[in-house]
Amino acid sequence: MFRAVVFAYSEVGVRCLAALIEHQVHVPLVVTHEDSPTENAWFGSVTRLAAEHGIEVAKPADPNSDECIRRVADLAPDYIFSFYYRALLKDALLACARWGAVNMHGSLLPKYRGRACVNWAILNGETETGATLHYMVEKPDAGPIIAQEPVPIGIDDTALIVSEAIAAAAARLLARTLPALAAGPPPARPMNLSKGSYFGGRTPEDGRIDVAAPAAQIHALIRAVAPPFPGAFIDLFSERLIFAGSHWSGEKSAHPLLAPCLYVEDARLYLDCSDGVRLQISALIRDAEPLDAQAFRRLYGDTALTLSTRVSKRILQL
In degrees rounded to 5, what are phi and psi of residue 36? Predict the structure, then answer.
């Protein structure tokens, strides 16, 4: 089997590195990141996996530094792999690989190039995404495509569910492609960048819900950033309510004249939206504590809570 230096992080990084180890690819070095204390890490540890298999781990502040490039060049890898590594690898580093530098991206390229590809796909109402193995060039997510595997997005799927499905698909895709990679650089088709778009990163503030938006748009936002991501939220009575999840039923609002509003019905929490459709809210989070339908009723009483950009009131006795 061939020799590869691996740049990896997150769940795709863990599962793809595991696939290389399982298929006896020689990996003398893994380059990864220090975990951020402010990030809710839902994924496994690349560092731990590498250590368990006796693989050297490096965490350079700049992977494109002269020191890092010399280290990789000295190892003379056949391939450089990037599996959800968060820094852009530049041409001088990519050129250290004899047969090429290859990236695993979490979308069906050229769609959703760039950052937060799963979150953006859900937010935009996509019903399918996937994993793409492609050659790296200095421009991000732009090199020729070697292979792809689609992943469906269900109507209630959250970013976590889809991210885990993509990680599993990425590992399968890599394993299937290993025989072709072992024979030398496999053929690839050019990426038509005009068929897709580039998306940037997202911030927690991007999770603010526009309560005047239609149900489908609010449902997509809730799913796209549901915990362990920062969460979709509204500010209510000077406190923040984070929406932990929602369910799409297509049901009509119970209180269309009061929408948007939150209320409890049959021990379930609902959000009536401005377009006459309601969402079932699986749970809210208030002050870092879960707030289910029963807790919501205890806190706010048996009332419908009307949401407004100006003020929120309890205005209807159920």
Answer: -85, 130
- Residue 55 CA to residue 30 CA, distance in Å, equals 7
The CATH class for the domain spanning 3-199 reads alpha beta
Q: What is the pLDDT of residues 78-117, one digit of tens each?
A: 999 999 999 999 999 999 999 999 999 999 999 999 999 9
Give the end-to-end CA distance of the chain in Å, rounded to a whole number: 68
CA max distance for the chain: 73
CATH number of the domain at 205-317, out of 1.10.275.10, 3.30.1330.40, 3.40.50.12230, 1.10.10.10? 3.40.50.12230
**Within this chain, domains 3-199 and 205-317 share the same CATH topology:** yes
pLDDT in tens, 217-275: 999 999 999 999 999 999 987 889 999 999 999 999 999 988 999 999 999 999 999 99
φ, ψ for residue 131, nearest 5 deg: -125, 140
Domain limits of the chain?
A: 3-199, 205-317
DSSP the chain: --EEEEEE-HHHHHHHHHHHHHTT-EEEEEE--PPPTTS---S--HHHHHHHTT-EEE--S-TTSHHHHHHHHHH--SEEEEES-SSPPPHHHHTT-SSEEEEEESSSTTTTEES-HHHHHHHTT-SEEEEEEEE--SSTT-SPEEEEEEEE--TT--HHHHHHHHHHHHHHHHHHHHHHHHTSSPP-BPP-GGGS-EE----GGGGB--TTS-HHHHHHHHHHH-TTS--EEEEETTEEEEEEEEEEEEEEPS-TTT-SEEEEETTEEEEE-TTSEEEEEEEEEETTEEE-HHHHHHHH-SEEEE--SS--EEEEE-
pTM of the full predicted structure?
A: 0.93
